[in-house]
Amino acid sequence: MQGELKYENVETARRDLENRTLAKIEGNFSRLVYLASLRDYNTGEYNHEGLANRFTEPLARRAIAACHRDVFSRLVLCSVEELVEQLELYIRSNGSAFAEFARVWRKLQPYTVTVPMECSPLTARFFAVNVRTALAILLYRQAPAHPDPLSSSLRP
Amino acid sequence: MSLHPYFFSIVSVALALSLAFLWRRAPRSFTAYPEASDGEASVPSGWDPLTSELSVRIFNREDSDFVTRTATWRISQSFRAERTALALQWLLEVRRHVYFLMKAHRRAARRDPDLDPVSELRLGIDFLLFQITSRVLYLVIWLIGPLHAAALVGYSLKLAAALRNMTEDLVTGGTRVAADLLDNESETKNRAASV
Question: Is the pTM of this model over 0.90?
Answer without folding.
Answer: no
